[in-house]
C-alpha cells in the first residue's frame, strides 16, 4: 500500500511537524480495565505511521502508558517528533515542583529534552499557573525543553502569559465544524503573537464521519471520546443541527472523492493559525493512515465553504471561549460536571476568623503588606464580602505584564474571584467593582477584560483615571460580593 506523505508545518526554525499529529489519548481508554498495552507491540504499530511521514505524536502524563510506548517508538524511529503534556494539580509551583514534573516526563520518554512540553492548568483562580510557566521557561533555557506549549487556554490567559514574557509557541484546543470558538478572539491573539494551534476534537470522536449520517441519536455510549463529543453536539444545537452539518460535510466529501472526516479536518487546517490537527490512534487496532493521507490531495472551494456556512447557521455557538469546558458549566467533558473536582482544588488564600466576631472571616494572601498595613485580601461579614484593591502582583512583589493593562486586569480579576470563592462565595455573587487606571487610554482594554468575566452578570461598576498607583502598576481593582442562596 502506497500512502502519500502528509503536509509539513514549521513551528520554529528547528521544529517541523506533520500537519496530522497522532493523538495517543485513546491509550488511556484502552487501558481502563487496569491492564497496560504491550509497549513494544504498540510502538511497532506507531512506527508504521512514522515511516509513512506521520511522524508527530501527541500524548500526556495521564494518557495511560502512552509516554512509555513513545519511548519504545523512539528506539525504532529516533527522528519521530514526540510531544507531551504536564498537567499538575493546582498548588504552589516552586522550581523544585516544576523541575520534578519535567524530569518525570524525560524519564518516561527516555529522552534528554522534550521537544514540545505542553502545560495544562485546571483553575486560573489559583495564580501559580504563571509561576509554573516561568519555571518551564527557565528549564527551556537549560535545554530540558525545546518549546513551551499550553493546552485549553482561552485567548485572555494566552495573551496574559505572552504579555508577561513566557515564550509560548502553541496552544492545544478543540477545533471542529461544531466547535468554532477557535476562529474568534483566540485567532486574533495567535496572529498578534505568532502562536499556532494544535487542534484536537476535529472529527468529534468519530461523529463527523459518514457512518453516523441519518442515524438516530444513540441511547448509550461507553467510549470516552464519544461521551465527550456527544456533549458538544448537544451544546451546538442538538442531534438535528449536527446531522445538518454532517450532511453538508458528506456532500462535499462525495464531490471530492474523500471522506467526511477529511473534509472536517481540511476545514480546520484552512485557518492559518492552525499548525496541525490531532487524530486519535488506537495502537494495534484500526489503521487510518490511508484515509488520513487523502486529506492532502484536495482543498475546499468557495462553494464548499458556502455549504458549510449554511449548515452552521442552524447550530448554536458553543458557550464561552476555548478551554472553558474544563472550568465552567456546561462542562463539555467525558465525565460532564467537573464542579466537584474544581471545588476540591486548594485555594491560594488562607482563611481565618476574628476573635469575638463569629460572623467575620478573612482571606489572606500572605503578602508582607497585609501585616504591615493591617488589612486583608478579602473580608466576609455575614453575607457580604469586601475585596481590597488588588493589583497584578505575582509572588512577593513582581509586577505581572508590566506594560499591558488588559493583561493585568485579567490576572487581577482571577485573584479577586479566588478570594471570593475562598470565603464561600462565587463569581455570580460579585455585585460591584471599582477600577483605577493610571492611563485612561487603557480603559477599553481593561473594560474588555472586565466584560469577559462579567458580561452576563453585570455588577455595578466604576472606572476612573488617577495620577499614580503605589508601585509600577497600570490598574487596580476592588470588588464587593453579596452572597445569595443557590
Strand arrangement across the biggest beta sheet: 3-4-5-6-7-8-9-10
**Tertiary shape:** globular
Query: N- to C-terminal separation?
Result: 61 Å
| Number of helical stretches of at least 4 residues | 16
Low-pLDDT windows of residues = none
Overall SS class: alpha/beta
How many DSSP-defined strands? 19
- In round numbers, the mean pLDDT is 94
Estimated helix fraction:
25-40%
Work out the strand percent: 15-25%
The Rg value, from CA coordinates, equals 24 Å
Largest sheet report: 8 strands, parallel, barrel
How are the secondary structure elements laid out?
Elements lengths: L7 E5 L2 E4 L1 E4 L2 H5 L8 H13 L4 E3 L7 H11 L4 E6 L8 H15 L4 E6 L8 H15 L2 E7 L3 H9 L4 E7 L10 H9 L2 E5 L23 H12 L3 H18 L3 H10 L4 E7 L8 H5 L8 H11 L26 H5 L6 E5 L2 E8 L3 H6 L4 E4 L2 E7 L2 E2 L3 E2 L5 H18 L7 E8 L5 H12 L5 E6 L9 E8 L4
Parallel strand pairs: 3-4, 3-10, 4-5, 5-6, 6-7, 7-8, 8-9, 9-10, 17-18
Antiparallel strand pairs: 1-2, 11-12, 12-13, 13-14, 14-19, 15-16, 17-19
Helix pairs in contact: 2-3, 4-5, 6-7, 6-15, 9-10, 9-12, 15-16
Amino acid at each position: 500500500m502506497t500512502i502519500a506523505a502528509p503536509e509539513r508545518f514549521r513551528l520554529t526554525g528547528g521544529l517541523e511537524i506533520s500537519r496530522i499529529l497522532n493523538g495517543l489519548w485513546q491509550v488511556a481508554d484502552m487501558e481502563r480495565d487496569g491492564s497496560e498495552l504491550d509497549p513494544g507491540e504498540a510502538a511497532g504499530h506507531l512506527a508504521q505511521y512514522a515511516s509513512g511521514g506521520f511522524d508527530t505524536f501527541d500524548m500526556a502524563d495521564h494518557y495511560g502508558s502512552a509516554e512509555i510506548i513513545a519511548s519504545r517508538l523512539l528506539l525504532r524511529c529516533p527522528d519521530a517528533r514526540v510531544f507531551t503534556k504536564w498537567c499538575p494539580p493546582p498548588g504552589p509551583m516552586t522550581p523544585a515542583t516544576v523541575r520534578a514534573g519535567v524530569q518525570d516526563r524525560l524519564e518516561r520518554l527516555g529522552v534528554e529534552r522534550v521537544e514540545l512540553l505542553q502545560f495544562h492548568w485546571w483553575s486560573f483562580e489559583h495564580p501559580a499557573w504563571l509561576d509554573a510557566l516561568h519555571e518551564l521557561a527557565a528549564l527551556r533555557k537549560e535545554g530540558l525543553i525545546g518549546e513551551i506549549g499550553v493546552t485549553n487556554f482561552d485567548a485572555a490567559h494566552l495573551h496574559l502569559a505572552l504579555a508577561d514574557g513566557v515564550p509560548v509557541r502553541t496552544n492545544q484546543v478543540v477545533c471542529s465544524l461544531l466547535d468554532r470558538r477557535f476562529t474568534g478572539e483566540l485567532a486574533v491573539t495567535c496572529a498578534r503573537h505568532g502562536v499556532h494551534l494544535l487542534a484536537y476534537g476535529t472529527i468529534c470522536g468519530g461523529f463527523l464521519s459518514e457512518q453516523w449520517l441519518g442515524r438516530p441519536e444513540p441511547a448509550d455510549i461507553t467510549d470516552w471520546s464519544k461521551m465527550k463529543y456527544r456533549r458538544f453536539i448537544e451544546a451546538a444545537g442538538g442531534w438535528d443541527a449536527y446531522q445538518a452539518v454532517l450532511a453538508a460535510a458528506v456532500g462535499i466529501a462525495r464531490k471530492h472523492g474523500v471522506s467526511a472526516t477529511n473534509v472536517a479536518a481540511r476545514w480546520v487546517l484552512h485557518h492559518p493559525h492552525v499548525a496541525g490537527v490531532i487524530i486519535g490512534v488506537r495502537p494495534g487496532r484500526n489503521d487510518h493512515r490511508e484515509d488520513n493521507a487523502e486529506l492532502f490531495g484536495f482543498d475546499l472551494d468557495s462553494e464548499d465553504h458556502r455549504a458549510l456556512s449554511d449548515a452552521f447557521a442552524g447550530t448554536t455557538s458553543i458557550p464561552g471561549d476555548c478551554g472553558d469546558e474544563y472550568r465552567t458549566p456546561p462542562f463539555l467533558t467525558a465525565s460532564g460536571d467537573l464542579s466537584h473536582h474544581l471545588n476540591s482544588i486548594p485555594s491560594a488564600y488562607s482563611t481565618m476568623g476574628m476573635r469575638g466576631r463569629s460572623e467575620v472571616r478573612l482571606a489572606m494572601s500572605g503578602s508582607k503588606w497585609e501585616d504591615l498595613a493591617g488589612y486583608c485580601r478579602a473580608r466576609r461579614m455575614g453575607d457580604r464580602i469586601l475585596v481590597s484593591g488588588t493589583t497584578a502582583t505575582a509572588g512577593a512583589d513582581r509586577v505581572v505584564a508590566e506594560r499591558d493593562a488588559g493583561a493585568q486586569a485579567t490576572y487581577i480579576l482571577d485573584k479577586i474571584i479566588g478570594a471570593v470563592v475562598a470565603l464561600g462565595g462565587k463569581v455570580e455573587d460579585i455585585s460591584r467593582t471599582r477600577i483605577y487606571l493610571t492611563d485612561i487610554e487603557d480603559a477599553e482594554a481593561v473594560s474588555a477584560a472586565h466584560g469577559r468575566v462579567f458580561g452576563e452578570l453585570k455588577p455595578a461598576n466604576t472606572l476612573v483615571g488617577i495620577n499614580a498607583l503605589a508601585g509600577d502598576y497600570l490598574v487596580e481593582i476592588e470588588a464587593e460580593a453579596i452572597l445569595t442562596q443557590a
